[in-house]
Amino acid sequence: MSIDTATAARVAKLARIAVPQEDLPKLADELSGILDFMEQLNEVNVDGVEPMTSVTPQRLKRREDVVTDGNQQKAVLANAPDAREGFFAVPKVVE
Prior knowledge:
The chain is mainly alpha-helical. It has 3 helices and 2 strands. Helices cover 36% and strands 4% of the residues. A two-stranded antiparallel sheet has the order 1-2. The relative contact order is 0.08. GO terms for molecular function: asparaginyl-tRNA synthase (glutamine-hydrolyzing) activity; ATP binding; glutaminyl-tRNA synthase (glutamine-hydrolyzing) activity; transferase activity.
């Protein structure tokens, strides 16, 4: 796929990158090269290939998923302008 300078200018504008007019042909060539490489990657057959997290086989560290209150109630409520019975107190907005 070939990118022209108008498309490169539009991409630069959308990315909020200031690209001088004389650098737009180079940017267009680079973007075209990236798209060509992506087309090459699409040609690779990856059927039956397991996803990897690393090039060496290893298991990720895991911890037990336990719900806790964090034991921080007093510290958190210390910042509240008004707290009652262990909760934030807010003004009533619905009657």
